[in-house]
Amino acid sequence: KNKPGRADYWCMGWIVFMGLFGLAMLPLRAWLLGLNPQLLVALTGSRSGTAAMGALASQGLANWWVPAMLAGTIMSIKFDWVFWWAGKLWGRGMIEVWAGRSKRAAKNYARAERWAEKLGWLGMFIAYIPIPLPLMQVIFVLAGASRMSLRRFLLLDFLASTVWLLFYFGLGWVIGEPAVQLLKEYAKYANYVAIALIVFIVGSTMFAPKKKSAA
């Protein structure tokens, strides 16, 4: 709605980078989940990897899970500040961009926004609940739009991430042996899953522009 400045370009650039980075990391995540869940957690803060690590730890098969958990907590929030920055720069305008022209998306984002407004700062902890609503992004954007300081945002985000990763670790610990056996079976096919994801990503990247041009 206004002429973009340097901060606008940088923030949008980070948002684009986040999307590309997440897409590129999909094969690595699939591969490491079968090969080394602890390394997966340390590098990405993966929740499924944390649950797998908890299962391995319950069987004495994850000796360095504590440093992996600490590193994972930091890595899981590595890009969250970008959403906060977008909210600070553009307010809820970022939510309008995400919703686009889709009535269904607009309805989902409006619902997530109502939740975020009611929860206040507690929404930082609720943001990690795996529900089919874009709750996390909306809460982070509104945190910036409400002028929450970056220091407070990062502190709450770190605490929330730690609590939820501990929950997933405990869940894996409780499941224990069955989850370990499932991981061993998955490890046999992890290479093929990673290759299939690479083919899918490359194929989608190559053919998507052609479809748009045809349309």
How many beta strands in the DSSP annotation?
A: 0
Low-confidence blocks of residues:
none
What is the helix/strand order? HHHHHHHHHHH
Shape: globular
Q: Mind telling me the C-alpha Rg?
A: 19 Å
SS-based class: mainly alpha
Distance between the termini: 27 Å
User: What's the assembly state of these chains?
Assistant: single chain
Specify the helix fraction band.
over 70%
Largest beta sheet, briefly?
A: none
Strand content: under 5%
Average residue-wise pLDDT: 81
Number of helices: 11
Explain this structure to me?
Helix 3 runs antiparallel to helix 11. The protein is mainly α. It has helices at residues 6-35, 37-44, 47-58, 65-75, 80-90, 93-99, 103-119, 123-126, 135-145, 150-175, 177-214. Helices cover 81% and strands 0% of the residues. It is globular, with a radius of gyration of 19 Å.
List keywords for this structure.
globular; 215 residues; mainly alpha; 11 helices
SSE inventory with pairings:
Elements: H1 6-35, H2 37-44, H3 47-58, H4 65-75, H5 80-90, H6 93-99, H7 103-119, H8 123-126, H9 135-145, H10 150-175, H11 177-214
Brief summary:
This protein is mostly helical.
